[in-house]
Write a structure and sequence with these properties.
This protein is an all-alpha fold. The chain is 71% helix and 1% strand.
Length: 333
C-alpha cells in the first residue's frame, strides 16, 4: 500500500476531530451533559462538558472508513469499540452499575476474539491465550479510565502509545495495524486541542474506555518476536504508564482498606501534584515518560536477549523506586 495513506488518514482524522470536538462541546453545554466539581476528587473550578469521547470515536470511524478496507478484523475493532463507547456514554449519564459495565466490556472482548483478535504467541495454548486476552483487554479498558484524572493526561498518553504502535507496525509491515494506530493518533491530537489544560471538554468514560480497548487490541495484534522471544513484552513497556497507575492505585487503596474500585486520590498524577508539580509539569513529564517508554519498547523488541533482559530489569527497578517514593513520601488529601 502507498505510503501516502498514513499521513492522509492522520490529517483527515485530525481535522475531523478538531471540528467534531468543538461541536460536541457546544452540544454538551446545551444539554447540560457536564462534569461538575464536588470538592473531593473533582476539583476543577467550573463545570466542564463531556462528549469528547464521541468526537474521538466519530473522527476515527469516519477517517478509517475513507481510507481502508473494512475487513473482518477492522469491523471487529469498530463493533467492539462501539459497544464500550455506548457503555461509557450511559455511565457518564450516571445510569450504569459497575457490574453491568464489566459484563458489557466482556461482551466487547468476545466480539474481538470472534473476529480473530486475541493474543497469539506460539508458546501459549489457546486455552491460556483466550483467558489472557480477556484479562489484558479488561485491564487496558479500565487503565485508561483510571489515569483520566487530569487535563490532557489520558488522551496524551494514548496519543504517544498510538504513535509507538504505528512505528512498530510500519517496521514490521503490518499495514492494518499501522493505519488504525495513526488514524486514532490523529483523532486524539485534535481532541487534545480542547482537552489540554485548562480543559474545555472531557472525554469521560465514553472516550477513556473506547481508547483503552482500541489501544489494548492494537498492542495484541502487532508483531514483536521476530528478533527475540521476549519481544512480546514490548507493548507492556509502551503502555507502562496506565499499567503502573492501575497497580499503584489498587495497592494504595488495599493498604487503606478501601475497595480497589472506589474512587480515591491515589493516582501518580495527583501524588506528583501534591509533591509540588504544576498540572502542566505533570502532563509534560508524563508525555516525556511516554516517549521514553516507546523507545524502550523498541529496544525490548530489537535488542539481543541479554541486553533486552537488562533493559527490562532496569525499567522495573526504576519504576519500583518511583512507586515506593510516591507511596511513602507523598501524602494526598
Amino acid at each position: 500500500m502507498a505510503m501516502w495513506i498514513y499521513p492522509f488518514t492522520f490529517v483527515i482524522s485530525l481535522l475531523l476531530s478538531l471540528y467534531l470536538t468543538h461541536v460536541m462541546r457546544r452540544a454538551a453545554l446545551q444539554f447540560g451533559i457536564v462534569d461538575r466539581p464536588n470538592g473531593k476528587l473533582k476539583r476543577h473550578k467550573k463545570a466542564v462538558p463531556y462528549l469528547g469521547g464521541i468526537a474521538i470515536y466519530l473522527s476515527f470511524l469516519l477517517a478509517l472508513s475513507f481510507s481502508f478496507e473494512l475487513n473482518r478484523e477492522v469491523l471487529g475493532l469498530l463493533l467492539a469499540g462501539t459497544i464500550v463507547l455506548l457503555l461509557g456514554f450511559i455511565d457518564d449519564l450516571g445510569f450504569l452499575k459497575p457490574w453491568v459495565k464489566f459484563i458489557g466490556q466482556m461482551v466487547a472482548v468476545l466480539v474481538l476474539v470472534r473476529s480473530g483478535i486475541f493474543i497469539k504467541l506460539t508458546f501459549l495454548p489457546t486455552y491460556v491465550s483466550i483467558p489472557l486476552t480477556f484479562l489484558w483487554l479488561a485491564g487496558m479498558t479500565n487503565a485508561f479510565n483510571i489515569i483520566d484524572v487530569m487535563d490532557g493526561l489520558s488522551a496524551g498518553v494514548a496519543f504517544f502509545a498510538c504513535v509507538a504502535f504505528f512505528l512498530v507496525a510500519l517496521l514490521n509491515g503490518r499495514v492494518m495495524v499501522a493505519i488504525v494506530a495513526i488514524t486514532l493518533a490523529g483523532s486524539l491530537l485534535g481532541f487534545l486541542r480542547y482537552n489540554f489544560t485548562p480543559a474545555q471538554i472531557y472525554m469521560g468514560d465514553t472516550g477513556s474506555m473506547f481508547l483503552g480497548l482500541m489501544i489494548g487490541a492494537l498492542a495484541m495484534i502487532g508483531s514483536y518476536t521476530e528478533k527475540n522471544t521476549l519481544g512480546f513484552l514490548a507493548p507492556v513497556v509502551i503502555l507502562w504508564i496506565p499499567i503502573f497507575d492501575t497497580f499503584l492505585v489498587m495497592f494504595a487503596r488495599w493498604r487503606k482498606g478501601i475497595p480497589i474500585f472506589l474512587g480515591s486520590p491515589d493516582h501518580y498524577a495527583l501524588r506528583l501534584r501534591a509533591a509540588g508539580f504544576s498540572v502542566k509539569g505533570v502532563i509534560w513529564l508524563s508525555y516525556g515518560a511516554s516517549t521514553v517508554l516507546g523507545g524502550l519498547g523498541f529496544l525490548v523488541m530489537m535488542l539481543p536477549s541479554p541486553y533486552q533482559v537488562l533493559t527490562l530489569v532496569g525499567l522495573l527497578a526504576g519504576v519500583g523506586l518511583v512507586g515506593i517514593l510516591l507511596l511513602q513520601k507523598v501524602e494526598v488529601k
